[in-house]
């Protein structure tokens, strides 16, 4: 008989995380996407390159320039793309969710929307995802996000720099923003799409857990093992330390991260002392729209939501 302590100690990060249901093993899918060629996904003004957040770890990065640079971007190298950060256009650092890579279709469609609105979009695959080296862990994912933020900040200077996290990426995003706020350098704003409160609550709330959650020892064997392996993604704790405008977007028909978790996170954030004086907004999307977990980018209201919240007109962006 396996002792629980040994199970917790022997399980790797991704040996535990499947029991969070929302977050299965990270897979380098879809295989047919060549991440070195973002133009194959219709991103003709996107540069693919690789950075090294630490020795022995290379991560794959895409930089999609604002669509106004589309013609000039053809055939240009990474140095040219970096030079475009000197323009007045704001930057969105996008932290994706678990399934797939930076080349996932719903992500590409969002990049296109944001680019058309005048944003630079910088996204990357965490270590262990896509064509990035290494093995995933919450600590490693957060370290990659911190590194990418600092890399972008050095190049974008005083231009607005926003952080957008989706699904699992919201947990990484709040880890990142808490770190920045604790360091006295908060970002211009944080956007959380389909967020949860913490990994333990997401695992318990996920519909797929229904077949397991009433079994004897569910908490002890699955949830406690996740916590024992230092997998927390505790956005509900992080928002108590965040001090920048925060926008939460959630579809009522989200079956992956239940809508009530996003609303609960908003309620916690709206009462956070650190967020006092900062705009905190929750935008629900009716189930009749069918946006579910990953199609909020389809909303015709999204450009107006962003411009209203960020205080940047579409023409300025």
Structural notes for this entry:
With 317 residues, this protein is α/β, with parallel strands linked by helices. It is 35% helix and 16% strand. It has an eight-stranded mixed beta sheet, with helices on both faces. The radius of gyration is 19 Å and the shape is globular.
Topology:
Blueprint: H1 4-10, H2 13-16, E1 46-54, E2 57-64, H3 70-73, H4 78-83, E3 91-95, H5 105-116, E4 120-124, H6 138-156, E5 161-166, H7 168-182, E6 189-193, H8 199-205, H9 218-228, H10 235-238, E7 246-251, H11 259-270, E8 280-285, H12 302-310
Parallel strand pairs: 3-4, 3-5, 5-6, 6-7, 7-8
Antiparallel strand pairs: 1-2, 2-4
What is the quaternary state of this protein?
single chain
Tell me the structural class. alpha/beta
What value does the Rg take, in angstroms?
Answer: 19 Å
How is the main sheet built? 8 strands, mixed
Distance between the termini: 60 Å
Order of strands in the sheet with most strands:
1-2-4-3-5-6-7-8
Percent of sequence in beta strands: 15-25%
Q: What string gives the helices and strands in order?
A: HHEEHHEHEHEHEHHHEHEH
Mean residue pLDDT: 87
- The total of helices stands at 12
C-alpha geometry:
globular
Total strands = 8
Q: Runs with pLDDT <50, length 5+?
A: 1-25
How much helix, percentage-wise, in residues?
A: 25-40%
């Amino acid at each position: 008989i396996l002792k629980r302590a040994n199970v917790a100690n022997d399980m790797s990060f991704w040996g535990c995380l499947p029991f969070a249901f929302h977050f299965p093993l990270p897979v380098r899918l879809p295989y047919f996407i060549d991440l070195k060629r973002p133009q194959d996904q219709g991103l003709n003004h996107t540069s693919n390159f690789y950075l090294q957040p630490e020795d022995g770890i290379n991560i794959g990065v895409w930089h999609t320039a604002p669509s106004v640079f589309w013609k000039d971007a053809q055939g240009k190298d990474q140095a040219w793309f970096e030079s475009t950060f000197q323009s007045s256009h704001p930057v969105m650092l996008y932290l994706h969710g678990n399934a797939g890579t930076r080349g996932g279709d719903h992500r590409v469609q969002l990049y296109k929307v944001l680019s058309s609105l005048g944003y630079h979009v910088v996204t990357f695959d965490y270590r262990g995802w896509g064509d990035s080296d290494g093995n995933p862990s919450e600590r490693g994912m957060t370290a990659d996000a911190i590194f990418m933020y600092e890399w972008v900040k050095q190049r974008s200077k005083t231009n607005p720099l926003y952080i957008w996290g989706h699904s699992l990426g919201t947990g990484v995003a709040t880890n990142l923003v808490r770190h920045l706020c604790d360091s006295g350098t908060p970002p211009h704003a944080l956007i959380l799409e389909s967020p949860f409160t913490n990994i333990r609550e997401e695992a318990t709330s996920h519909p797929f857990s229904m077949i397991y959650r009433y079994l004897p020892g569910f908490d002890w064997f699955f949830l406690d093992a996740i916590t024992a392996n230092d997998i927390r993604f505790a956005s509900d704790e992080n928002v108590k330390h965040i001090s920048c405008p925060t926008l939460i977007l959630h579809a009522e028909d989200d079956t992956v991260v239940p809508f009530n978790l996003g609303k609960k996170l908003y309620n916690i954030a709206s009462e956070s002392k650190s967020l006092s004086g900062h705009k905190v907004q929750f935008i629900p999307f009716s189930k009749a729209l069918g946006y579910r977990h990953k199609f909020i980018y389809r909303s015709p209201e999204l450009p107006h939501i962003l411009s209203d919240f960020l205080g940047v007109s579409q023409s300025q962006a």
